[in-house]
Amino acid sequence: MPLKEYKPGTAFPGVIGRTADQSESAWPEPRRAKEGAPNVLFIVLDDTGFGQLGCYGSPINTPNLDSLAEGGLVYNNMHTTALCSPTRTCILTGRNHHSNNMACITEGSTGYPGYNGYIPFENGFLAEMLLEHGYNTYAVGKWHLTPADQISSAGPYDRWPLGRGFERYYGFLGGETHQYYPELVYDNHPVSPPKTPEEGYTLNEDLADRAIQFIADAKQVAPNKPFFMYFCPGAMHAPHHVPKEWADKYKGKFDEGWEAYQEKTFARQKELGIVPKDAKISRHDPDVKPWGECLPEEQKLYARMMEVFAGFLEHTDYHIGRLLQFLKDMGEFENTLIMVISDNGASSEGGPTGSVNENLFFNNVPESLEENLPLLDKLGGPETFNHYAWGWTWAGDTPFRRWKRETYRGGVSDPFIVQWPGGIRARGEVRTQYAHAIDMVPTVLECLGIEPPTVIKGVTQSPIEGVSFAHTLGNANAPSRHHTQYFEMMGHRSLYHDGWRAVCPWPGPSFAEAGKPFGEPISAEKLTELDATGWELYNVQKDWTENENVAAENRPKLIEMIATWYAEAGKYNVLPIDARGVLRLADERPQIAVDRTRYTYYPGTQAIPANAAVNVLNRPHSITADVEIPAGGVEGVLLAHGGIDAGYSFYMKGGKLHWVHNYVARALYHVESGEKVPEGRHQLRFEFEVTGEPDVASGKGAPGRAQLYIDGNLVGQAEVPVTTPLMLGLTSGVTCGSAPGAPVTPDYRPPFEFTGKIYSVTVDVSGKLIEDKEVGMRMVMARQ
Predict the structure, then answer these.
(1) Is 73 helix (H, G, I), strand (E, B) or coil?
(2) Domain-wise residue ranges, the chain
(3) pLDDT band at 473, cuts 50/70/90?
């Protein structure tokens, strides 16, 4: 006899008598998916340009993503916001990024609606919606949607993945991470990678393993229960890390340079029908040095950087393929709706010369060809934190102009693949309808036959702002339903409306033409001037790649487009326009932890992210460890911050006390005690005495004198001519009692746990701090 059920919140339909034999039971109806409901898989790539996947004309091998395109649909008119976190909010909520209060990344948030970085709970995530309809929900990989001050063990956790509808999570919460030594979070707590780089660890493999495990865990218990998985490898964001054999597959493949890549990719795109036959290739970017003008040594380095990027992308594709093959092996692939997208165009954050260590750029240290060339064979390995030169960025966005962070098509037009073998008959077809990342949620809901919820967890929901493109899945000739879309990214604005694009580039069409860098503020007076003379107009029905500015001959149309942009801006919280990319860091924000002059840390605790950790740079400071030394001596880390790319470590080895400063992987400054630490309880102390001024503009932090003390007695000292000026390790926080991440020094291997007893480690930073806000913001803006 079937159980009687009723919806929670409605009246009990059974009978309650004086005893059970006089009563009739009924049960609250469990959340149950419709019979045959499909699984949903979102694969979100990072910093992957329109012309970087094989199925979009690239020479890079991406057979698994290509197979999805061959068995499904390729969209050539999908758009994003031009930046990571903003796009990801669109993908997950179906609302615009300013409606999600994510105008920028959370590190660049400001105190205005649309900009504060707190995604409203009335803008429900797809995970929250599908959870209510009987789905399992998983997030794996990059997150970068939690306010920066809330990414620590102090929480709060309601804006972490498990707080926004995902039942399980494994990945990293920030914008980027070391691919061999990632800062991993499992659900709501940090964990260490399951093996070391020496044992073959890569993040790509680890994320695929975990995604497979999550699905298998549930399917072996409830095989008919569908899942939603949000799978976001850190690729192709820097660092471009990949085992050498993968990069070596591409040796010599890019020796002809970025112009040749662009031309050949464009030709293949036309052959594939990805771009219109009459489309023109974008102009040579004024910021990109012609390949023929590069020195032979530069060409050698730049070509290897691209070989590493290509190997990294193929490696990523391989592990995506493992996930897809698992779905096939368990019989779930046919009934899985798969959408693949990149969060923005290719990244220009490597600058004109690329980098072997991105932390050089973040610390204002100039790149040196002479110093970088010897590291050529190490590119892609754990000792580098590399990014290619922006000539490859321009080529990677073929056929469009410009790149990530800008709202020309190179920044906002991205690869998009849809496959659903059981729900879409079309195979290997191109779709040309206009779409935006906000359209993914309503499309999924329509495919699943689910109405957008009016309430989630007691919170009344805002309207979905995207438009379903489900009608295009089976009809190549279906009309576009998304007619108007605004774009704004740090003052760079554009608008699409029924085949036209108006663009107001800031600081200009290129940095060379503008004579200004990224992040130049816009005053009210300047905005008035821009609205009068700074807008460009393109008829993208005829000029698909934005080559011919027709603003002068279509002034009435341009005025109409500008007015529409402002109407959309008012509707979606886009104002006030804020182009202060490098200055937003100076804005005060609410903080979970207040600044203080003494920080106390304990062993066995979670790593402290940089934004919540003590800052010892450019100031006198001391580190004092209260320890117990057993008979036979000890070794291990007392306190460390940073990694291979920059950092410091206070540790014991060989019975002696040590301190080392890694100056952006250019130099190691080391001091050790002249005597061993005896058995018993002791106070071990490091002091840094500043002996000169920092030169932040030249990438040089304050010099000083490093001193070691045992129970107040000086036992070692050394001069430190230069320190890291702005940022220690890009992905490693402060750890006490061990250093599980990329090691600051080759003097030990991770995790190098302290083998004695640590009672506490206290850092005193009561000395004066010298800051450079502008350079600091440039640092966080590249971590998207």
Answers:
(1) strand
(2) 39-351+387-478, 486-581, 598-777
(3) very high
Q: How far apart are CA 338 and CA 406, in angstroms?
A: 28
Indicate the pLDDT class of residue 366, thresholds 50, 70 and 90: confident
Helix (H, G, I), strand (E, B) or coil at 538: strand
Q: What angle is formed at CA 564 by the lines to CA 563 and CA 570, rounded to 5 degrees?
A: 95
Q: Could you read off the pLDDT of 293-306 as tens digits, one per residue?
A: 999 999 999 999 99
Pick the CATH number of 486-581 from 3.40.50.150, 3.30.1120.10, 3.30.200.20, 1.10.287.130: 3.30.1120.10
What pTM was estimated for this model as a whole? Answer: 0.95
368, pLDDT greater than 80: yes
Return the CATH number of the domain spanning residue range 39-351+387-478: 3.40.720.10
**262 CB contacts (<8 Å, ≥6 apart)?**
51, 281, 394, 395, 398, 399
**The pLDDT of residue 776 is above 60:** no
Is the predicted pLDDT of residue 364 greater than 90, yes or no?
no
For position 780, what pLDDT does the model report?
45
Q: Which of 137, 175, 129 has the alpha carbon at shortest distance from 41?
A: 137
Q: 534: which 2 tokens?
A: 């700074």
The pair of three-digit structure tokens given for residue 384, joined into one six-digit string: 């580098």
What pLDDT, on a 0 to 100 scale, did the predictor assign at position 582? 54
Three-state secondary structure call for residue 159? coil
What is the length of the chain? 784
Which residue type is seen at 124?
A: G
Distance CA 430, CA 439 (A): 18
Cα–Cα distance for residue pair 512/518, rounded to 1 Å: 11
Q: Each residue of 468-485: b (16+ CB within 10 Å) or e?
A: bbbebbeeeeeebebeeb
Residues 6+ apart with CB under 8 A from 604: 737
User: 294: which DSSP letter?
Assistant: S
